[in-house]
Write a structure and sequence with these properties.
This protein has 129 residues and is an alpha+beta fold. The chain is 26% helix and 29% strand.
């Protein structure tokens, strides 16, 4: 008789991300210089100069890279929390639930945060992307 134990999903397995959300992000960042897209963290990330700005997360909603000093203030809002990776809270990385980015102004806010922080970082050589 086959085992009825639940299947554990590891963070390295491929998980589908929200293609519609990725398209909405793409519309908002399309004019950025040095923009690239890359599958990472189980989603589709948008990088500026090789630095991740925002991602349509495989867990739903967004993963946004922000100034670590602003993490707690930004995470105090609705539908937002500091990201947990490998069991650790990661200042500078926020998860925003899909319900928190239903409208264009809601999404624009997070795109702006992620892009501004990515622009503030030194660019990475193209071979490292």
């Amino acid at each position: 008789m086959p085992s009825q134990d639940p299947v554990e999903v590891t963070e390295n397995e491929v998980v589908a991300f929200d293609e519609d959300l990725a398209g909405r992000i793409r519309e908002l960042v399309g004019g950025e210089k040095a923009l690239t897209e890359k599958r990472m963290f189980g989603g589709l990330a948008f990088l500026i100069g090789g630095n991740m700005a925002i991602s349509a997360s495989g867990q739903g909603g967004l993963l946004v890279r922000v100034d670590p000093g602003k993490s707690d203030k930004l995470a105090a809002g609705p539908h937002v929390e500091v990201a947990i990776m490998r069991g650790r809270e990661m200042p500078g990385w926020l998860r925003v639930d899909a319900v928190g980015v239903k409208t264009k102004p809601q999404l624009q806010r997070w795109v702006d945060e992620g892009v501004a922080y990515a622009r503030s970082l030194p660019g990475k050589p193209s071979g490292s992307r």
